[in-house]
Amino acid sequence: MEGLQNTKIKVLEPLTPEQSVELFFSKNSQNMQRLDELTYFSDKLQDLNEATIEAALEDKLDQKYMNLKPCSKKHSHTRACTISYLSKHPIFDLYLAGHPLLIHLVSNSMRSLNFQSVTELFRSLLDAVVENSTSAKNDDDSFLLTIIDWLLSKLQYIDPKILDLLAVLSTVAMIPESHKFNIDSDFDKLASELLLDNLEPRKTLKLLMQSGFVGGGEIRGDAQYLVNPFIG
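^ thats the sequence. predicted structure below, dont judge the formating
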């Protein structure tokens, strides 16, 4: 095809489970605090482990997770112990499966969806996967689609206008190269074309930014925002 002669396609390898855990908890200080809670407060990690075993007993997870146990060595536990455990946990071993974008979205959404613990996040992800009867194999992006749908459903409960705004942003995401838009000069035109004239973007945009779907700084009329290309 014309214009694609010099195009190079790179296949990115998924992150390892350990890298996935580290990326997830490094996204913000609140998540780092959750990692420390799992490390230094054994009841937090025990709650997660019990919820995981319970799910396996109910056939909601592969039976291999029945054998998942926190570090039992007699020493002062560190983050490395917790990361080792979490790397084998279905959140990172199965659901997020080394997909950087999915890790980015779910990690950022911990705050906007008001999850108080990793155990609460796990239970919600588990319910979404079971409800959608998603296969236990992640070789066809089934978990990717299920979890993005789960995220959007949760966000839509907070702000019903979020899918309308994403309809506008999907138009922006198809703009070659830039994937950027300006609230004052671009948004009204795009919204009008999609018959969404009454959509007020700022509040909804803030939620999308908190959740990682859109990147940018302070929300103001002359600012530009980066739209994740996958939205298109």
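Residues 162-231 form a domain with the Arc Repressor Mutant, subunit A fold (CATH 1.10.10).
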